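In this supplementary section we document a worked example of the pipeline. Step one takes a protein sequence of length 296 as its only input; no multiple sequence alignment statistics are reported here. Step two produces a three-dimensional model, which step three serialises into structure tokens for compact storage. The input and output of this example are shown verbatim.
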Amino acid sequence: MTTIAADRKQYMWLPSVTLWQREMVRFYRQKSRVIGVVASPLVFWFFLGSGFGSSFAASSSTGHSVNYLEYFFPGKPVYQIAVPIYDCYTVEPDLTKEAARKRLGIDSKHVILFFGYIREYKGLDVLIDAMPSVLKQIPDAHLLIVGESYEKISRYTEQIERLGLHKNTTLINKFVPNEEVGLYFTAGDVVCLPYRSATQSGPLNIAYGMGKPVIVTDVGGLAEFVVKEKTGFVVPPEQPAAIADSITGFYQRYSGVNFAEYIFEHNKQNNFNNVHTAFREIFEMRDKTLSGKKRA
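The serialised model returned by step three reads:
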């Protein structure tokens, strides 16, 4: 029996080792692959470390005037296609904001939603730090945190307890299936995305699809998606005071603004049906360029 068990273990790991050995031999025999793996990081390290990094950043409201495409291809036309709005999530026909909150056990008229994977760069801790200042102005404010954590969730639960926010916070640490997305966005008034870094944001596009305004930090391309004081607000990153001011301002100074109306109007310019328009313009430009070269 011992011999048979040993043979089985050998048959299990031997194919894996053989495959690994074969791939390593192929890798080192193909010099182009070795050069690509080693040289690519070195080239980017050289450029970024030599002060060119500022040129390789997408434009933002406070960013640089030259982005990486314009840097590498000066004078060439640049077409920007934003990630379309996610309007594919459904909401139960009779589910009201009050009913959604009751189902989640939230007894508050002011609910701030943080939605998405919980990771360091998402800045959830910054939002939690902002909540004591929010509660001074809006005592019944409630923070609804929904998303699967990719780090120790105790970091956030301990922060919530330390700041005395446990009665004003609901934390749902799980992966959210498509069928449940509408519940959480219906319960929230505003979606807060306090990212430390980002390019774009899926939760932002979901929020717009649900007609919910957003509070985003001015990192990456997030600010480009926000029409200030109409579809949301933009604040500096890692500043709890600025986030708190935007949240209280949303409820107190902009309570009469119909954000949903502005958002749905904005969505018309950024949906999946408009993607083909950009490609058509690109192909038309290409055809004009080619026909011009032929006449020359």
